[in-house]
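Task: encode each sequence below as structure tokens.

Item 1
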Amino acid sequence: MLNFTRLMLKRLFALGLSLVALASTSAAQASADSEVTGLSTTPLIQSLHDSRFAGVTEDLSTPSLATSNLKPVRPLRNLDRTHPGYTVETIRLQWRWDDPIDLYVMRPKGVEKPPVILYLFGFPQDTDLFTNPDFQNEVTKGGFAAVCFVPALTGQRYHDRPMKEWFISELQESLGESAHDVQMILNFLAARGDFDMNRVGMFGLKSGGTIAILASAVDPRIKVLDVVDPWGDWPTWMANSPFIPQEERPNYVTPDFLKKASTLDPVDWLPKIQAKKFRFQDAVFEPVTPAKSKEKLRAAAPSGTTFVFYKTDQEFEAAFPENSLDTQWIRHELNVLPGLSTMASTTAPSPAESSSYKK
């Protein structure tokens, strides 16, 4: 049977009308169920008068936290030790009104302070993938920890909003909050003291890749960054991407909308990436990001970027085989970071590197 991890990736890489339909369905979804199996929950915060978040302010015009004031409250946790090689901790975090975040932390057993990789698959991915044992086993290979969550206005974080408001219509909120979340999660992990914060990587797919770029541009703690088909170049993307429902497109090409989106365009933030190693994977065949936008994003990447191109669906599937998420490259680069001793359980670079080049 086809591996669940691969099925989820293929769903996110569906072409043309399938992906547009998926986006439209997600845009019109009713309030998402916030319950997570095995995770104790509290009622969603419905009132802006909740005293826990008094004084919270957030500047959504920048991925940096410097001009925001978010207040984390005490997290709720549930630890599952039943898996043979790893543990799974489900954690509910919150630092703004009405937006609890379900974090999934997978730790390899027997490793005191493992390096950690953040996984962000982007809209419309929900948390289903994070509960799958095949995925959990894959991301904890080689002594690595994995931290997974979904972006703002996505999955369990989409609730109590008018149906017309969704990830794209509220793009500045979706991207700005999510980039802030990455940094707040890194703060949380650092405060725990049980991860190797000198070896932090991040993997982002599509809009998750966009958010990862924004976060890496303002947070040097992300040492290795790997993105697949990030969205960006908003004027061209909004005007031409088949992901946008045609009846909504006029709303997203107005000067006001594009002005707000422009402050979070990865084309402008790519040159500022602070990761020591950066890989840009480009599925040339997929149409969600227009070809002209892909070219502009690649041109904005910093010197030293490793590019990998997949010209066909078959090439992409070869790089993401049935039992792999292709985490070999990011694990390898984290293992061999300059100035740090090499971990014992090193891995070889991904086979896809044979079709890559450095800028």
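Item 2
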Amino acid sequence: MRLRPAVFAILLVSLVWMGACSSGGAPTATPTEVAPTETPTPEEPTPEYEAIPGAYLGIFYGARTPSLDLFESIGKQPAIRMFYLGWGAHFSPGLYNTYAGMGQITMVTWEYMLRPAGDLEPYEGRLLEAIVDGVHDDHIRMWAEQVRDFGKPVLLRWGHEMNGDWYPWSGALNGGGATDGFGDPDLADGPERFVAAYRHIHDIFDQEGADNVLWLWCPNVPFEGLGDWNQIPNYYPGDAYVDWLCIDGYNWGTCGFGASFNSQWQSFDEVFGPGYAELQAINDSKPMIIGEYASTEVGGDKAAWITDAYERIREDYPQIRAVVWFHISKETDWRINSSPESLEAFKQAIAGDYWLEEWPGMR
């Protein structure tokens, strides 16, 4: 068929255009390039302990009215006054109000020491279970009300050194590593009973509105001899039940009492390093307090030990934000002023602003 010139021209143009498209000669539209969306990295929350601008000084002095000369010679007052109260005692706020007026907080070590009698006879060998079963609820509630009515912050340390075998609330004396007497058959009964008792006491304080309590959970530094079931984490009641992690430990040196368990002179790191790491693994945000510590004079240089301890705490143990010295001559002379050299070392060690002598909110 013969095409007319106009039609032929249109067809020719169309073929040329199609050829150009098929050979890639003409530009084609391309998507606009968009930079990949970057997912922002969530910021790590600031650890709770960093809100504290140093470490609070604390002391247990073995008498209700210590000599003011000690604190005058040291040049600082303690921010924490620690007391031991038996289970059957009342929380009497008179003396604690006096210390609060000086900017000092009371730390109560509440000791559950009871002999099985009356209602407790069925619980021999597992006294902690009596707490869980509510035998002491009225007494616990009375304490909660008294502490609540005091109104000022209180550090409460119940059940300290529960991973030892020297207190009636210890895991060792409440079922130990057995698993067939309480709760979960996969958990050791001793630690499990402790956790249940701790939570029970805490819950009653919550019910009574005693929210001025700061709860300390305080194992002893780890030691061998009781079995794999007696691990510090097994006793942890949970983050919701603990405000401050706590740990106790001593440099026994070669004092006579320490000879009964073959003690040797230990540096601060040797005493506290392993326990600190275990507590950090449990929670690396909460502040930590040394509930009891001291050094003997026997077997080494106590003054040098004191100097090193406070340097190590500040430089290598940032989560420790309070320390309570066990100032008493008991198994050995633990006192700060057991020698002029030790007293001077202590005075120099705590001289800086990092070591705090007043607890906020007390006055």
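Check on item 2: The CA atoms of residues 234 and 271 lie 21 Å apart. The domain at 49-356 is CATH 3.20.20.80 (TIM Barrel).
End of task.
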